[in-house]
C-alpha cells in the first residue's frame, strides 16, 4: 500500500496514518464486485428499502465503503496538493497530472477537470494496493513450499549481484530466473481468478453464442492459466517452465501477464509497474532472507495447504 501511495501521490504513508485505515476500509469494498454477492443484484427494487430493515445490511456496508472511497480520494489528493503548493512534494502521478499537464484544479467552472487527477489517483490505489500484496503472499507461500526454487534463485542472485549490494531493477535482464518466479506467481495463483466483471453495452454474437445487452461477462483467467496444453502440470509451481536449460527465455510458453491483467480497453493500466515492483520485491527478499514454513512448538515445520480465499481479489 505504501509503495503505490508514494508513486501515485508522492506521500509517505505511515501504518498509523488515519488515511491507511481509510484505504483498508475502501479496499474491503472490492468484495462488492463479486457477482451475486447481494440479493439486490437480482431484485433491484431492494435498493430503495431503508438500511435499518432486517436483511438490508448491504445498504450500510455499501454506504460505509462509499464514504471510505470518497474520503480517500479527497484526503490523499488534498495532502498531495498541499505538498505541491509548498514545494516539498516529490514527483508523482498526481503532480504530473496537475503540473505536467497544466490541469487547473481550482477551475470551478469545469468540475470534470477537477475530478480527473482525483479519480486517476484513487483508481490507481484501489487497483494496486490489494493486488500486489496478494501476489506477494503467493510468492511467500510458493517459496516456502518449494525450497529448490529458492536455492536456484539465490544462486543466480549470488552470481549476478554478489554480497556487496542489493539487487536493482536494472539487473532484470541478467536475472531471468527471478523474472520466471514472478511470472509463475501470476500464473499459479492469479490475483483475479475471474477478472473484473464486465457488462455488455449491446447485443453481440461471439462464436455462435448470442450474448444480450447488459449481460455480466467474466473472463476465466484461472482456466487459461491452468490449461495443461499451455502449462504442463498446471498445479505445480514451476518457474523453470519459462527458462530454457541454457538460461534463455522460453518464448514458446505463453506469458501469464496476457491473462492475469485483463483484456481490451479495461486491461490493467498498472500491469508494467506491478511486474516491475514484484521483480524488485522478490529479488530483494531472496537476496537477504531464506523463506520457510512456520514452526510448531517443537520446532518442526507446519504443513502448509495452499488455498485460495473467496472474493474478486484472492
UniProtKB/TrEMBL annotation:
Task: Name the source's superkingdom.
Answer: Eukaryota
Q: Which cofactor does it need?
A: heme
- State the GO CC annotations: membrane
- For heme, which residues are the binding ones? 268
Q: Which Pfam families does the entry mention?
A: p450 (PF00067)
Major location (coarse): membrane
Which PROSITE patterns does the annotation name? CYTOCHROME_P450 (PS00086)
Where is the protein situated, by its record's location annotation?
A: Membrane
> Which molecular function terms from Gene Ontology are attached?
heme binding; iron ion binding; monooxygenase activity; oxidoreductase activity, acting on paired donors, with incorporation or reduction of molecular oxygen
As for membrane topology, the entry says:
Single-pass membrane protein
**Xref: SUPFAM superfamilies:** Cytochrome P450 (SSF48264)
Q: Which family does it belong to?
A: Belongs to the cytochrome P450 family.
Question: Which keywords are on file for this protein?
Answer: Heme, Iron, Membrane, Metal-binding, Monooxygenase, Oxidoreductase, Transmembrane, Transmembrane helix
Query: What organism does the UniProt record list as the source?
Result: Polyporus arcularius HHB13444
Protein name, per record: Cytochrome P450
Amino acid at each position: 500500500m505504501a509503495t503505490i501511495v508514494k508513486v501515485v501521490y508522492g506521500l509517505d504513508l505511515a501504518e498509523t496514518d488515519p488515511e491507511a485505515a481509510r484505504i483498508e476500509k475502501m479496499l474491503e469494498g472490492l468484495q462488492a464486485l463479486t457477482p451475486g454477492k447481494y440479493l439486490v443484484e437480482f431484485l433491484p427494487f431492494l435498493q430503495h428499502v431503508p438500511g435499518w430493515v432486517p436483511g438490508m445490511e448491504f445498504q450500510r456496508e455499501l454506504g460505509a465503503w462509499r464514504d471510505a472511497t470518497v474520503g480517500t480520494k479527497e484526503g490523499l489528493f488534498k495532502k498531495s496538493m498541499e505538498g505541491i503548493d509548498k514545494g516539498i512534494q516529490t514527483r508523482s502521478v498526481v503532480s504530473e497530472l496537475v503540473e505536467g499537464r497544466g490541469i487547473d484544479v481550482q477551475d470551478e467552472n469545469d468540475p470534470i477537470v477537477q475530478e480527473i487527477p482525483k479519480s486517476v489517483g484513487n483508481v490507481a490505489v484501489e487497483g494496486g494496493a490489494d493486488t500486489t500484496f496478494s501476489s506477494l503472499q503467493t510468492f511467500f507461500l510458493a517459496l516456502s513450499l518449494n525450497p529448490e526454487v529458492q536455492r536456484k534463485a539465490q544462486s543466480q542472485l549470488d552470481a549476478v549481484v554478489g554480497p556487496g549490494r542489493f539487487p536493482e531493477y536494472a539487473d532484470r535482464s541478467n536475472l531471468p530466473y527471478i523474472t520466471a518466479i514472478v511470472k509463475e506467481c501470476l500464473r499459479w495463483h492469479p490475483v483475479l481468478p475471474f477478472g473484473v466483471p464486465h457488462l455488455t453495452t449491446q447485443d453481440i454474437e461471439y462464436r455462435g453464442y448470442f450474448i444480450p445487452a447488459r449481460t455480466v461477462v467474466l473472463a476465466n483467467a484461472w482456466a487459461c492459466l491452468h490449461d495443461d496444453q499451455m502449462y504442463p502440470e498446471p498445479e505445480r509451481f514451476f518457474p523453470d517452465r519459462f527458462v530454457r536449460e541454457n538460461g534463455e527465455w522460453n518464448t514458446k510458453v505463453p506469458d501469464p501477464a496476457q491473462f492475469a491483467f485483463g483484456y481490451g480497453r479495461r486491461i490493467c493500466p498498472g500491469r508494467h509497474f506491478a511486474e516491475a515492483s514484484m521483480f524488485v520485491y522478490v529479488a530483494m527478499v531472496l537476496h537477504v532472507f531464506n523463506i520457510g514454513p512456520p514452526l510448531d512448538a517443537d520446532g518442526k515445520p507446519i504443513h502448509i495447504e495452499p488455498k485460495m480465499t473467496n472474493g474478486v481479489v484472492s
